[in-house]
């Protein structure tokens, strides 16, 4: 694949695997119906990239928007149950439309609906990963959305921008492309005069001070606005994945690797997806308060967390759940998957693993959080 003659290229050009996210506002007409022409144009751009040899995952919003007019709803409902009902009607229509559009290119579509639970629980996330990899191997295009009909307020992503960043880590993508109704990130509200496009963000920290100008949704069907896109780019960048943010109208140019929109460069090394999910997607079920020595061991030496370095435990968790590790002042320093239930831990605190194993049996020689199941948070 080569970028247009003379045009500078973005990291999308050389990406062997790309996750592309499209927002509701780019798929629906002003009246709120699914816009078949726009779906076809997007699918043509994705199919061209597939034909050039890249794996492509589409994270598509639009289920709630597509369900509005069949249900006679004039606007996006505010309550969760009506949004879920609209999503259940709209998701079928959306996938039906994608199936027809990809069929024009001889490509099959695989619907993958994910909840936040699926990214917290290791077994679920491995399942999702296996399905996605098998879809690539079989030549199908995964079309991902949040499983809106079963997600509750507490466990909802609510926006597909962050979901797309997490899917990009899950499939070890080389680039994330976020398509919206605006052609990039601006230094102010793009609907107001004077705002200029930011072509390149080397580190999201550069955006400090712009937060109040990176606003909410510009349409009646979108959800997160620009803020969740910047957050998604930050998550991907920290996992070593570059992000390109532009409009759906420029999808073809973006996927040909042309320099359009805003490029966010990676800020961290590529890391195992499991740890990034732990850092960004998991909701901790409990807190372990560490003494100063344990903080140093975990943060500076990359050691496992042992019972001897824990002073307090709170929360309701079972072995295998994500927990937050905090310093004596209560500041989060790391997250990890805990090896014991909440009920078991208080009796073990402050004691050495040798002593515990001698008294309670070899099962108690385990670390509370193994270093391989632990991710240190940025300070
Ligand atoms: N600084 C900014 N730069 C670009 N767009 C912004 C900015 N602040 C707010 N927006 C708004 O964010 C909107 C895109 O978010 P959203 O409506 O959630 O889109 P989508 O449905 O594609 O996810 C744009 O239409 C724009 O009006
Ligand atoms: N899962 C929801 C999408 C929510 C969402 O993130 O929407 P958008 O801001 O348009 O990307 C739906 O399909 O309607």
Q: Which characteristics define this entry?
A:
single chain, 379 residues, alpha/beta, Carbamate kinase, Archaeosine Trna-guanine Transglycosylase, Chain: A, domain 4, 2 domains, 8-stranded mixed sheet, 5-stranded mixed sheet, 11 helices, 13 strands, 32% helix, 17% strand, globular, binds adenosine-5'-diphosphate, binds ligand VHF, kinase, RNA binding, ATP binding, proline biosynthesis
CATH class of the largest domain reads Alpha Beta
Principal-axis shape equals globular
Sheet with most strands: 8 strands, mixed
Helix content: 25-40%
Binding site for substrate: 61, 148, 160
Enzyme class: transferase
Pfam families: AA_kinase, PUA
GO cellular component, one term: cytosol
Describe the structure.
This protein is an alpha/beta fold and 379 residues long. The chain is built from eleven helices and 13 strands. The strands form two sheets. Strands 3-4-2-1-5-7-8-6 form an eight-stranded mixed sheet, sandwiched between helices. Helix 1 (36-51) links the parallel strand 1 (17-22) and strand 2. The chain binds adenosine-5'-diphosphate and ligand VHF. The ligand N[C@@H](CCC(=O)OP(=O)(O)O)C(=O)O binds at residues 23-25, 61-65, 87, 145-146, 148, 159-160, 222-224.
